[in-house]
Amino acid sequence: MTRVAHPILRLEVLRSDGTRDEQRRVFCRLQRQSVDADACHACGHCDLVTRGPDAAIVCSIPRTREELTSDTTGDRTEVGAVLRRSVVAVDPATPIGDVLAVIHAEDRRSVAVVDAARSLVGVVHEVLFVEPRDPTEDVSQAMSSALALHESTPLRRALRLLASAHLREATVVDDAGVPLGIFRDVDGLRWLSAARRR
Predict the structure, then answer these.
(1) Is the model's pLDDT at 68 over the cut of 60?
(2) Residue 37 near residue 57 (C-beta atoms within 8 A)
């Protein structure tokens, strides 16, 4: 058995009416997919929950022989397993002024745009606000298509996809297209560097 800390990732959605809703999930390394944080906590493998800015669920899970050998290339480690940054999202009818406020308050480069089922439909990048825009305009008029990485994408492939798209970060989604977290190239490179030192 190996003790593993699964960071609790928060998806916070700002609706156009000003309300917010939230979902907390973790990427379970045992199931190799994201699960609701409450379901993870109720699992028989769960040891404890840590609180604070680096909140996590710590589990004792069996590891395969392959998992016990270090993955220094990132070819076996899923991008979902290295996520640390949660997602702030808006619905398509949210006014641009509200989205700009979120980008500044959260110190974000982009904000995901999701539909009523929380599935990713686009992204708004901070560079869109270089030119003045009507703050009452719906964000759907300013969003672009998003590079979404599936949570099971190997880390090395995720880095290559970011580089080929000339992006520094991308939204990581589950099978239903619901955002799980933000993967940044710098986080992936730090993970690879630490794996090689180990």
Answers:
(1) no
(2) yes
